[in-house]
Amino acid sequence: MSSNKDVSKERLHPDLTDFVLVGDVGCGKTALTLALLELDEKVLKTQAVVFHASHVVDTPGEFVNRPAYYGALLSTIVDISTIVYLQPANSKAFSLPPGLLHVYPKKRVVGVVSKTDLPDADPERACRVLTEHNISPPYFLTSTVTGDGVDALRSFLISLQQPESNSGATS
Ligand SMILES: Nc1nc2c(ncn2[C@@H]2O[C@H](COP(=O)(O)OP(=O)(O)OP(=O)(O)O)[C@@H](O)[C@H]2O)c(=O)[nH]1
Ligand SMILES: [Mg+2]
């Protein structure tokens, strides 16, 4: 008899939980969410907040590049412990006003440099942008095209669920 093949793929990583991806339109949030969860779904433009299982939340880029949506951003992240902020490797612009990611002081903000495979990627510059905006290392350099960095980020996010990690939230 074969094993049960109907188990939801969202449960491949049951400890991968309690984080929200934030960043500009097109920075790669949805592609990274699907890669982290190992979901084989098409990457479509995110029109509204997407709640995956286990409090994994994908937000539309408009939440950061349209001030009218800052309130929606803040109310979406209020109950989530970790904000995963994506800085595209080929961008030197930071997409939010200073301090908005740190409105809730007890949340951890994890910096990700996305799209490191692009020809004009400059991951070092992107890391500097994160530092200048009060996001502390470690930073995770990822590409959902090559898969680089995805496993490392997943392992780190899972490690945050360990009880001893909870006291280390940075901001
Ligand atoms: N080269 C490259 N392209 C990527 C990568 N990640 C995502 N993309 C592409 O970039 C485009 C935008 O990716 P999304 O994941 O939809 O970006 P998003 O941040 O969710 O965008 P919104 O939902 O509009 O906020 C898509 O065409 C993706 O295929 C990456 O690591 N490398
Ligand atoms: Mg999206």
What does this structure look like?
- The protein has helices at residues 29-37, 62-65, 70-77, 123-132, 150-159; strands at 19-22, 50-52, 56-58, 82-88, 108-114, 139-141.
- It is α/β, with parallel strands linked by helices and 171 residues long.
- The chain has a single domain (14-161), classed as 3-Layer(aba) Sandwich (Rossmann fold), CATH 3.40.50.
- The chain has a six-stranded mixed sheet, with helices on both faces.
- The model is unreliable at 1-7 and 167-171 (pLDDT under 50).
- Magnesium ion is lined by residues 29-30, 46, 58.
Provide the fold topology.
Elements lengths: L18 E4 L6 H9 L12 E3 L3 E3 L3 H4 L4 H8 L4 E7 L19 E7 L8 H10 L6 E3 L8 H10 L12
Parallel strand pairs: 1-3, 1-4, 4-5, 5-6
Antiparallel strand pairs: 2-3
The structure holds guanosine-5'-triphosphate (GTP) and magnesium ion.
